[in-house]
Structure formats: C-alpha cells, structure tokens
Amino acid sequence: MSYKYLIQSNNIHSGGGETLLNSLLQELDEQSCVFIDERKELSDAVFHFEKVKPSLLNRFYSEYAMKKLSNKNTNNLIFTNLPPFFKLKGKTVLFIQNVKLLHFGNDKNYGVKVLCRLYLERLWLRFFIRNVDRIIVQSTTVKSQVQLVFGNELDIKVTPFAPSLSMFFRGKVGSYENLKSGVLKKFLYVASGEPHKNHKRLIEAWIILANKGIYPLLSLTLDIEKSKKLVEYLNDCTVKYKLNIKNLGWLPQSKITATYSEYDCLVYPSKMESFGIPLIEARTCSIDIIASELDYVRELVDPEETFNPDSAASIARAVCRYSSFDYQNTLPIESKDLLNEAFSGI
To answer: Which CATH number fits the domain that encloses residue 192?
Structure first.
C-alpha cells in the first residue's frame, strides 16, 4: 500500500514528546502509517500503525520497513530526534527537540548507562544527518544550537507547534495580532572594538530586529584602522540585512558630549568593565541606558532596561521594550498544520 505520510515515533511514550505526538496523531488519516512505541496505547486510530519494541534491533527493522514503504511521493517525518539509518525515498524531515544530543557538554550528572546511550545517539545524529532533507525545531534557540554543530548548510526550519493556540492567550485566539505601534529610537554605543565589548552580539540583535521589520538607528564609534575585521563584518551585515547602523569612527573626548545629545539611548552590551565611563557620561547627558545585566552596570547606574549580553535575542527584546514595540515572539502553529509546514518548499 502507498502512503502519503510515513512517521517514525519509536521510544516516544511519555512526557512532552508524547503530548506533541498525541496532538499530531489526532490529525492523521488513512493516508498515514506510523511506527509507534509498543508501550503507547492507541484507541480509535484511523491511520495504519506498526507497534515497535523499544530496542535498537527493532528500531532497525522498523526503519527498514519504512524504507520499503517509501516512494518518490512519500513525506517521511522522523519524530525521534535521530535521523534514519537509510536514505528514504521522497522527502524526509527530522524533528529535533532533545538538545542534549547536540553537544558533548557537562554530563557528569548522568549515570553510566545514560551517558553511554547519549554518546551513541550523538554519534548517530552526526553520522546519519545527511539522510534527511530538512530539520525542524521548536525555537530559534534550538536552531542556533543545531547550526553550531552542523553549520549553515542544512535546511533548518523553526516550526513550533502545539495542540491548540488557545492555551497561549488569556483572551480569544488571535489577540496577538494587536501589535503596539512603537517609536523608532536612536541608539548609540560608545566603545572600542575589543572582543569583550560585544559588538557582534549587538549587530546580531539588530539583524533580529530587521527580520521583524524594525529598523532603529544604531551608531557605533569603531576605529576603522584598529577594528578592520569588525568594521568589515558590520558593513557586510548592513548591506545584507539593510540594517540602520552607521559607524561614526573614533571620537575624541571633546566631541563625545555633543554626540550623546543627538541620541535617545546608550546601548551598552559590554561583558566586562573595570568602570564603564560611557554609562556615567550618558547619565550626565540625561539620555537613557539599556545595558548588560551585570554587576558593574548596577554599581554605576540604574538602567531603563537590561539584557543578557550573551543573547542577541535578549538584546533585541530589550530594545523593543524600551521602544514600546511588540517583539512579536514566534507563535506556534496548530498540530493540524504541522505536516504541511514541515514539508513545504522542499
């Protein structure tokens, strides 16, 4: 028999993974075949399913059966965090939600058995990742972690989904469309180009804002000669993403005070300072401050907004809060739309 959708969901029988799987199963019809954990109970299923015992050998058999069933028109959804052993016919999409598989990090809190399984699964993920056409994840944070492991060559799509959007709003579904108008502010960052000044993360935040249709002015004070690579990176990003960022170049102290008066806010993402003179200068010139939520900042000033200096998204959110713009967080689609969204454009 030929199926439109083949879904691999072995070892999913509890927790958040089961909640998401249950919502997806409710949307399937007789055109779908699901390889499912034998511990999971099913009732009134209209789709075809094959129960699979939770073992590596049975996983292998189920994937071989999936390979035999696949054809050029099949949409194969691998719901288990791990890519298939075999290159399947048709389109193959892998859903990754277990971030522990992405990094060989600090695993000392796990037992030996769990550590061995994690190590093997991490190798599995890396070795067979080329057997998928696309990876879908639930957030831009997970997408960034996948890109750290595999680079930017893979097709990675942020596709958050949930059983029902109504759980996310106190009012009726769709109230998120009432966005704040906001006011475009002018931001200044007075700093040299050393790595701890964190310019790249700030530029990444402006890219996030641009992708959301928000283009506040940001002025930097980078010495073109001393920070050549950083200035080149800034210029490339400005052209590619149409950022509203300009570099004023190095400013002598005699011009600093007059420059502050031209801006609404000092943005200060530096990760380390012995004092932080621009914070004092900004307050003296009566302009607002959004800065890293770090001790050196709080010792000097009480900023209007703060952010995590290691997160471009956190900086972007702080800029939006200060400017009264709605950040427009990524909203989940409903499970009924997942399959269309996951395979569209492949």
So the answer is: 3.40.50.2000
